[in-house]
Amino acid sequence: MDKSKKYLAISFIVVLAAVTIISFAGMLLLKNKPVILQGQIEATEIRISTEGGYKGMPESKMIELSVIGVAQPKEIVWNGTPLERAQSLKMIRQYGYVYDAATRTAHLRFPYSPSLTTITVK
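and the corresponding structure tokens:
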């Protein structure tokens, strides 16, 4: 084998080894990175109203709202007040939320108000 073919073969092997090492290093360094989704979602306006009544009707009413198909919220704000996370909806006395990771559902509970109520899920 002449010198030029020998140097060409060695150069090819060196380049192949460098590409292989860089590829494996990249795969190891990029493993288990969090997925960050950016963008916007559509908001839905829900109007809840009550009319009439009955004898012995409670003065205050509670609303239970389920937001389906969401990641675990960092924060849920109801009329400017952050909701506290609870273990179950039954444990929520005034307002709060429960997140079910198995169904990707946030269950919110808050008092009914005839005025505008704003809920923000972050």
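(Above: one complete record from the training split.) Residues 3-29 form the longest helix (27 residues).
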